[in-house]
Structure formats: C-alpha cells, structure tokens
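Researcher: Next entry in the queue.
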Amino acid sequence: MACKHCEGLNDKFSKRGGQNYEKTIQNGSNNGNGRSTDRKPSDRMWQHTTASAPETGEASDTAEASGGSDGDSDSILIAGIAPLTGSLASWGEGAINGYNLAIKEINEAGGVTIGDKTYTLESAVFADDKSDATEAISAYNNCASYDISAVIGSCSSSCTLSFVETAQDSGMLVITPYSTNATICKTGDYIFRECFSDADQGPTLAKMAIEEFKAKNIAIVAAEDSDYCAGLAEAMEGALAEMSDVTYEHYGCVTTDTDYTAQISKAIEQGAEVIIYPNNYDTVPNFVSQARDAGFTGPILGGDAWDGTDVTGYESKFDNCYYLAHLDLSADTEAVKNYVAAYKAEYGEDGLNAVSSLYYDSVKMLVQAMEEAGSSDPSVVKDTLLGMKYESMGGEITYDENGDAKKPFTIETFKDGALTYYGSF
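Model: Structure for this entry, 425 residues:
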C-alpha cells in the first residue's frame, strides 16, 4: 500500500535541457584503488530557476524540475528511490518520511549555504521501485530525467545494483541509505552508501555467533535469489572458513519460500548451536516460528534487513533472537530522541524504523558535503564525501576508498516481543 505522504508533484518546474548553465562531465579513469572513475561524456545540465519546494512524493510522469547551486537558481534539487509499494512497503514509508523530514529541517534551519549564497533544498521526485530490480531502473531513469544533484536510494541491494552502473557512467551522485551488498560502491567514485557494507556485516555476524554465543556449530539459511541475502551469506562463510574449530553449513532457500522445515530439520540434525537467517523482514516471523516449532531453542541471528519485523502473534518465539542494526531508536542520545520526537510529530508512529533514519541521515550528510565542498556539482561533492566525517544517529561515519561507510554496529533483540537494545560491536 502506498504511503499516505506519496503524492504527485506539480508541473511548475523546468524540464532538463535548459541552456542557462551547462556543466560538462569529462571522462575519468581508475583511481588506483579498484574504484572506477570511468564515465561517459555527459551533457547533464543544471538549469536554474526560482521555485518553492514541491510536495515530495511518488514518481509522476508529468512532474518537472530544475536544480543545482551554480548560476541564478535559488534551489538545489535531489531525488529519492524506495519501495513505496510491494512487499517491503513499510521500508518505503519510513524512507520517504525520513527523507522529507530532513529536507524540511534543513530549510527551516536556513537551507543549504554554499559560499555566500543560501539555497532551498527541494525534492524533484521520490520514485517507487516496488522492491523490483526492473522497476528500479525505471525509477532511476525518472529521477535522472530531472536536473538533480544526487539520488538518495534505494533500499534493496538488487534494486540499487540495477542502476548504479548507469549512474556512474553519467556522473550522477548516488547515496544508498540501506543497500549493503558489498559490490555496490565498487561500481565507481560517484556511488556511496550511508549504511554499512556486507563485507563488514557478514564477518561481524560470524564473530557474534562465535564470540558472543560461543557457537562452534553454525547453520546459515539464506535466499539464493537475492543479492543482499546471498552476498551477506557469502561474506559470513568467508569469515567462518578462516576460523578454526568451527563447523558450518549453508542451506539455500528463495525469497518466496514459506516452508522452511527442510532447512531447519537439516540444521538441527547437524547439531547447530546457532542459526543465522540473513533475509528480509517480511519472511522472518514465518522462519522463526517454524524453527521454534521444530524444537530449535538456540539463538537465531539476522542481518540489518530484519528491521521492521512484525512479531505480533509470535512474541514468545522471538526470545533469543538478535540482529545487527544501524542504530537503536530507543537510545538515550540527544540526536535519536530529537529525531524520534520530530518524526512522530510529523508522521506519527507509522514507518518509524531504521530505514527512515538512514534516509534522513543520507540527506543531512549530502548537505554537509555540499557545504564543505562549496558546490552542489556531483563531481566536486563526491570528492568531499570521500574525505569527510559525518556524525549520524548511529555514530560517526567515515568512508574508505570504495565509498563504503565505516560505522558502528548495534545489536537488537526482543523482550516479550518488544524490540530491545542488546549491545554493540
């Protein structure tokens, strides 16, 4: 179901192709660290007009926009992508709300200051990828048809992977708030993430199973048709293979499975002390319930895609379940408390999840990079992003040479069905 805040845009903006100001992106090369700087010549332009902020919402075929910070414009435009409909729509609701809230707060605080001029931050479009890779390509093309300075999106790794090569080739800056597949940022130097990478998340899950829960026998059940699930499982297995005196087995499934009895039975037969289930939140209650019904009482661990899991009716079965998260929204920190209060005041409880905070932080981080760079030109902003520090709600973020965020891990658990902070790594 589409979020109630996903509304069409007005037709008051100028479509790409105006001649007031033109920025031509030159060819690049490999920067020496494996992160490509190659991109095709582009006639991507920033046309500048004065306009009030549109209602950020679902992609519109008739909406038009302008953006950039050079020239005569009083606004800088960005765009977003998330699954506003489909099986992961609760992520999308949080995503668009966090994105909109960040834009609102930035403008209320005075806008984006570049040099001696201040600009209004506006959203050209927020497109629905329906958590489908093919739809994600269309969503990206919709965003890229406007004169924007960056795309914030998407959630699912498969969706983000579907368009990052195109973005890199055209010199479009992309910050994905929630796609963790390890290969995404290696696409090139215009691609970043606000979340951690599976290259870090996988070994951390393996380490948690062994060090925190003292497991020597581990079962992994992961969807093989998902770039996120398969990539995270591969990263875990790589870490486990280097550890002595550890036995592990990997049992495959697919994202549409509803019956996991075969995989769970094999995990129990092998003597698994911990089961790791690195799959999306919509499948988690079913898997956990079947594991408990089969007699498995040990820890069940998950990755960050467990965020948003609805445990209603399964409360007792989620005892001894844990997952890696980007932050704890119940944390007693000023940043988290201020965000939660502002979100609830604007949208209520619906969609208040880690994804919402990551989209919020991605927008705030982008603006910090623009201000530090003194430009909204993606070719300038990307270099500033790579070298800067950003204080997110989940802790300080810095970037490695690939554009992968280095940040702390939070561990969440469930107590009587309520999400509860467990610790950090």
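Model: Residues 1-33, 39-71 have pLDDT under 50 and may be disordered.
Researcher: Noted, moving on.
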